[in-house]
Amino acid sequence: MPKDKTIVVGQSVKRIDARGKVTGETPYPGDFSMPGQSWMKVRFSDRAHARVLDVDTSQAEALPGVIGVLTSRDVPVNEYGLVMKDQPVLCGPGGDKRGTDVVRCYMDMIAIVVAETEAIAEKAVGLIDVIYEDLPGVFDMEAAMADGAPQLHPDTPNNILCHYRIRKGDMDVAWAKADVVVEDVYETTWQEHAFLQPEAGLSYIDDEGRVTVVVAGQWTHEDQEQIYHALNLPQEQVRVIYPAIGGAFGGREDMSVQVVLALAAHTFKRPVKVQWSRSESILHHHKRHPIKVYAKWGATKEGTVVAVESRVIGDAGAYNYTTTKVMGNANMMASGPYIVENIHIDTYGVYTNNIPCGAFRGFGAPQALLAAEGQMNKLALALDMDPVELRQKNAFREGSITSVGTPLPKGVSMPEVIEACARESYWQQQNGQWRRDALEQPANPAKRRGIGFAAGYKNVGYSFGFPEHSHALIELYGKAKIEEVVLHAAGADVGQGAHTVMMQMAADAVGVPFEKVRIIASDTAYTGSSGSASASRLTFMSGNAIRGAAELALERWKAEERPAIGDYTYRPPKTTPYDPMTGRSEPNFAYGYTAQAVEVEVDIETGIVRLLNVVSANDVGRAINPQLVQGQIEGAVAQAAGYALMEYLVSEEGVIRNPYLSTYLIPTAQDMPPQVKSVILEYADPIGPWGARGMGEMPLLPLTPAIAAAIYDATGVWMNSQPFTPDKVVAKLREHGIGVI
């Protein structure tokens, strides 16, 4: 090892992008321009479900300054999709695939206009005349499953995109054992990602003749694949570059402008730029899935959960996006992080004519855990048992068999996380039993305070057999000693500080100071695939790839190769898909564990719920950069608080009625609790790099059910339908005769 080795992992190194972002020097996709560039605008659908009979572009093409208009006929392979290619690039007659003449939601694109200026392109879009044959729509996911409902896709009977089953144990025996049974229904709705920069990008033909797209996304190589597939080009003729990315949260995992930008540049052989407005962004990218859970749980009088029965239904919207994966995750999380011998779950993803739903931080777990943790808290009440005590009695432990009939990967820390959260918040142990401290109430009788607790877990990395790998290449430069380390890693930094962490891991693996590392990232021309910045996987997967590349590079350095190059692809243990009848599988190779305690104040006259305190305990395995970990926890709490208390997307028959941040409300600094206490635990994952687990999603998972429990503690009323907006809270309080003047 080099003599100047320093310990870099575990230090709060300053982010490499901090100065540029706070000064405004760092360019985002919307900041890129080129000489001679043109502008693109999209003509979206005017119907939720219709056959497009004709697209008349003549008036638009005749407008001075219009370079051209592209429709379905101009797309070489008119399909795309992350998991399955079930969506047309452009909808209309003349496409090369069956069904591309049908629009299935208002998000569908019908045509793109390329013009000399943005204003001309905008005007031309309004001149395109589209003739439709209206088709019946369906906007309720349960109605969509019924016989005779309008069918969106020809090969999907009853609009059931996916159906997962878990069959573990004997339910008749389980219910006979149960001394208490709790049954309830939980509902969640859409959530908008609300990332800082709306969709934007620039596409051009580079010096090597490649169709190049500068855009914000979460997986450069997957964007590249969808572009070259739709354009029917060889892979090497498409290049994708990510500059700074203004947030993602899953919202950039699927396509928005990437394919049509590339199509325009490829067709007209000149640079093409696009910049969506905030309303275009909210109207035309996917959302978090609305999910409904019918849950019935049973436990013995001693507090052992013996039965879980659930029916879980998720609204996919018009296309799959990642619904098959999200609902697979929800299926597993519906029984929570608990050992239960008898489980019967049916989970469905259902096509509707609503906006498509896809990846969003948590990926089905926040919705499923609202039900699972709600059931645990209600069982605790029915048993007259402390909710922490009940969780500790049933929580996953090392070697526990999950709902899918196989043991968890080693490194289970759920009991330790629950205990740490309890001790750092409102609980203490007395005579071996968990008890909560007394809570002082406000002097104002209209204000009532309560405390809630919830826990959760989530996979690190892709699940259920989806191919998983991460590539890194390291170059070592110098003579007698290493003077520079160049890291090639494609992983997207979507604002979480991933590139800083990757450089820390490279420095530590090679044994040089952080300042000697330079990163080349997120450009398909210079990097192999690192996979997506999603599934809380990037630190885990990239870290293992970086360690492997560093080891190879150091071997060559010792052999006096200059430069010494290490090229390595990390592949974790394989996972397996659900058995279609029983659900048995080996679904994941690693997990992260989390628990949260919250205090709220409820105004029983107005229904306003104020979040006063959050204690968030998270096992991160190893905090590569503790300050960034804390930032992730606080950011997740902010996003979860919005999801729980205020974010309400109004959709009526597929039309989003509040596509503005003035009417779709997200938390501001004033809505954050005065304190978010981050409890960072480090129980090493056996196969994580330096022991690290992923944790980007975990602190978002339990907050909504914890707030629901706190509202109940304050008022005696359960809120089962998210978000807990003042009008809904007031209505529920009045149903119970609370706050009536």
Please explain how this structure is put together.
The protein has 741 residues and is an alpha+beta fold. Helices cover 25% and strands 25% of the residues. The protein has 17 helices and 27 strands. A seven-stranded mixed sheet has the order 3-5-1-12-9-10-11, sandwiched between helices. A five-stranded mixed sheet has the order 7-15-14-13-8. It is globular, with a radius of gyration of 26 Å. The mean pLDDT is 97.
Strand fraction: 25-35%
Large-scale geometry = globular
Biggest sheet layout: 7 strands, mixed
Helix content: 10-25%
- Gyration radius (Cα, Å) is 26 Å
N-C termini distance = 75 Å
Strand order of the largest sheet: 3-5-1-12-9-10-11
Indicate the low-confidence ranges by residue numbers: none
Mean pLDDT: 97
Number of DSSP E strands: 27
The class by helix and strand makeup works out as alpha+beta
Q: What is the tally of helical segments?
A: 17
Oligomer: single chain
Summarize the structure.
25% of the residues lie in helices and 25% in strands. The chain has 741 residues and is of the alpha+beta class. Helix 6 (220-231) packs across helix 7 (258-268).
Topology, pairings included?
Layout (H helix, E strand, L loop, with lengths): L17 H6 L14 E7 L5 E7 L1 H5 L3 E5 L31 E2 L5 E7 L2 H8 L3 E6 L6 H4 L15 E9 L2 H7 L2 E8 L12 E6 L5 E5 L4 H12 L6 E4 L16 H11 L3 E4 L2 H7 L6 E9 L5 E13 L5 H11 L9 E9 L13 H19 L3 H8 L19 H10 L3 E4 L2 E4 L10 E13 L10 E9 L3 E8 L8 H13 L6 E5 L16 H21 L5 E7 L20 E13 L5 E11 L6 H20 L5 E2 L2 E2 L18 E7 L21 H13 L10 H10 L6
Parallel strand pairs: 1-12, 10-11, 14-15, 20-21, 24-27
Antiparallel strand pairs: 1-5, 2-4, 2-6, 3-5, 7-15, 8-13, 9-10, 9-12, 13-14, 16-17, 18-23, 19-20, 19-22, 23-24, 25-26
